[in-house]
Amino acid sequence: MDSTSVVITGAAAGIGRATAQRFLAAGYRVGAFDIDEKGLASLARAAGPAERGRLHTATLDVTDADAWRTGLAEFTETTGGTLGVLVNNAGLLSAGRLEEIPLAKQHAMVQVNVTGTINGCYAAHTYLAATPGARVINLCSASAIYGQPELAVYGATKFAVRGLSEALDLEWRADGIRVTALWPPFVDTGMLEGVTTGSTRSLGVRLGPDDVAGKVVAVAGDRGLPGRLPAVLPRSVHRPVGTQARALFTAASVAPSWVLRQVNARISGV
Predict the structure, then answer these.
(1) Residues annotated as catalytic (active site), given as ranges
(2) pTM
């Protein structure tokens, strides 16, 4: 039974790739899933000889529930049917005014960011429940603190991830599975290429993929394995990443909604 196993979606590039490399360096058995076959091949080539033996890559469209079942079944053949950590990282972002973004792109964000996360949690539950100290880490966003102009649908998908994470952390407590939502602000990845909004101009882009990856691995390490006192209590569902996100999240927890509205209007330049 292997509690140091992890499955990461969107692992071919950006945050997912950095996270896979961090987990490999920490000695985990890593299942790297992505729709980008070339990116996964590049990840495998970059791994050291010892790491390649612990790396399993597979193409996966996170919106395909059947593909999730097949992918997890193949990966867990090497772990005795267990899974220590699931990282739902795959995501899409389209920015701009709602009426200016093609509806197909908006639907794609919902399918990948929300349906993909639900599919992953659903398919992985059996394996997580069979593993002491299992954890799900869902990539949320500071955009889920308050609805952001020019990021309306993207933010809405992250509000959904926030609600799902809160509910499952309670629902799956009896199964010994803890669920965490990670809250980075804007991160310097390909997903932000060509994206310019009032928020990006005000806040800037101050985090790189490795900053978020480091937080993912740190959270995974606080899984309350036998003989360890978890550093993160079960009720600590939300984990902001970076100084900006911590400040925004703390303010949002105490400020009335009208103050948040004014702050977001100023940040967004509307």
Answers:
(1) 154
(2) 0.92
